[in-house]
Amino acid sequence: MLSRGRVGRGFVIFITIVLIFFLLFPFFVTISTMLKPAREIYATPPYWIPKGLALYNFVNMWKFHPFAQYFTTSAIVAFSTTALTTLLCVPAAYALARFRFKGKKIFFFAFLAIQMFSPIVVIISLFKIMVFLQLLNTYFGLILANTVFALSFCTWMLSGYFKTIPLDIEEAALIDGCSRLQTIQRIMIPISAPGVATVLIYSFILAWNDLIFALAFTTSVNKTPVTLGIQNFVGRFYSQWDYLTCAAFLATIPVVVMFLFIERQLVTGIAGGAVKG
Prior knowledge:
By secondary structure, this protein is an all-alpha fold. The chain has helices at residues 2-34, 38-41, 56-64, 67-98, 104-116, 123-132, 139-163, 167-175, 180-191, 193-208, 212-217, 226-229, 241-261, 263-276. The protein has 2 domains: 2-54, no CATH class; 62-276, MetI-like (MetI-like fold, Orthogonal Bundle), CATH 1.10.3720.10. The protein has 14 helices and no strands.
């Protein structure tokens, strides 16, 4: 029995190592490519370890391309989408968790139905709406589109987390003289901090990684986010792989930093929202 247990454990470890290797291999290729001069990228036969660190790739990328503007646009859209989504989903989630009204279940499952659709399915309709509202090539157009798709999941998840909070705590606050809004601000939000953190990280990642809306609703360089700007390094006959990998590496840093910052709250929030969602 002991030998079988060791063999099974060794097999699991081996499979885990193989899976980790396949998952990390693209990141290794990215790091290897972004540190190579252009002549080494197309060397034959290829080699993985750069002979010299081409750190000037980062300098040239910022110098000869408007990558700073791409980064600024993504930051504005991502942070604004996060703020707007949180502002809207907190009262909506609270209403779904605490109030009873006709059509509540239909309204609740409508959020899930929205989450099932890919943005590409409704991109033509959204484009017509953006044209009618004159929101093409604007920050608000991108913020509004990303908020619509982030709001459904965030409201559904946060309402499930609100349901885990005992009603007695809220009633005690109301008896003490707190209004409904004060109860949400002083009681519900602090207690449900992991759930709110989940809303923050999900909406931020969704907006930061957006490509479909940016591709459809923007044509100006000043309103181009980093996900769309990276495509400019890929040409019809020639691709600047050194600059492309540098840009891709820098674009992942904000998401990784934010994820590491609230990782524990994120896991707790997803688990809490899924229990009674």
